[in-house]
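We were asked to recover a plausible sequence for a given structure. The inputs and outputs are reproduced exactly as logged, with field labels preserved.

PROBLEM: sequence recovery
POSITIONS: 312
GIVEN STRUCTURE:
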């Protein structure tokens, strides 16, 4: 009898030990996997934010992409990635002196809700810098026009004196105003030649409608904290520059690649690639972007490579 009871107790003990062992080493595998995924996600998000802080935007984008791989469709990682990509594109446009286009892209960074505050701050700083330059170039343009009118009237000394207002301004040596400085120097030389008795001295009137000059679309986007104003600016810039395909005259096949519809996300991704190539994609219609995707595919190159070699 005692042996029988001992056997029963032993079996119960063994079962209990097995149950707890399974719970610790087997049953928690799913929980451990979830914990590991969350840990990696948090690490990538933290690393991405630090790389943004360090202005290492390419690495930051990779971090946020890796975070999305850990949690596909995660809104925060996707938001940070898109905001960082927009800032990177804007910075590239700015460095290539395409200031009006850069201002629009920086506006998108500012308008990102619940995004990274450091990017909002940096984008706002760039926008203020561009707007200040726009105001200054308008001032220089007025001075130049006055000097040019004096030159045409034969008042060469007055023209030189007026031009001196540009040369004595320290700001004229900043990169924003290199076209104004070049034009002012040419007019100065023309004034001197005329004063030295040269006849038929001519100087062309430059067009200061550059990437910095204020126009209606830039004025409409002066308040960059308003998403509506930024979107209006982008739309008006696109309308002013648009010379592409009419969206209402394309066939179904024009919107497809190898028989598959080119999706909105494909178009958005292509726009980013085109911007990275230094081409202002916001001036292109959706069909222009589709045509670029199709042409790049036909040549067997990426959209960015095609834009750099063909569209730029």
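RECOVERED SEQUENCE:
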């Amino acid at each position: 009898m005692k042996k029988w009871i001992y056997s029963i107790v032993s079996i119960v003990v063994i079962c209990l030990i097995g149950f707890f062992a399974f719970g610790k080493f087997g049953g928690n595998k799913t929980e451990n996997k979830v914990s590991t995924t969350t840990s990696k996600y948090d690490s990538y998000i933290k690393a991405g934010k630090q790389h943004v802080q360090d202005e290492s935007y390419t690495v930051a984008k990779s971090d946020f992409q890796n975070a999305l791989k850990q949690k596909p469709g995660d809104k925060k990682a996707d938001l940070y990635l898109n905001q960082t990509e927009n800032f990177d594109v804007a910075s590239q446009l700015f460095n290539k002196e395409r200031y009006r286009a850069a201002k629009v892209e920086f506006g998108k960074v500012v308008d990102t809700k619940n995004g990274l505050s450091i990017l909002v701050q940096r984008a706002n700083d760039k926008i203020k810098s561009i707007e200040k330059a726009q105001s200054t170039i308008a001032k220089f343009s007025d001075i130049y026009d006055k000097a040019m009118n004096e030159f045409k009237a034969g008042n060469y000394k007055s023209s030189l004196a007026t031009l001196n207002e540009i040369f004595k301004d320290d700001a004229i040596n900043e990169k924003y105003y290199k076209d104004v400085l070049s034009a002012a120097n040419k007019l100065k030389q023309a004034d001197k030649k005329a004063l030295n008795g040269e006849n038929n001295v001519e100087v062309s009137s430059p067009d200061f409608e550059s990437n910095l000059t204020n126009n209606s679309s830039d004025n409409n986007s002066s308040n960059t904290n308003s998403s509506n104003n930024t979107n209006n600016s982008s739309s008006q810039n696109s309308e002013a520059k648009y010379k592409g395909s009419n969206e209402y005259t394309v066939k179904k096949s024009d919107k497809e690649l190898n028989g598959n519809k080119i999706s909105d996300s494909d178009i958005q991704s292509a726009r980013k690639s085109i911007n990275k190539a230094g081409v202002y994609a916001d001036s292109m219609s959706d069909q222009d972007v589709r045509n670029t995707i199709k042409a790049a595919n036909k040549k067997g190159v990426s959209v960015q490579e095609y834009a750099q070699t063909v569209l730029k």
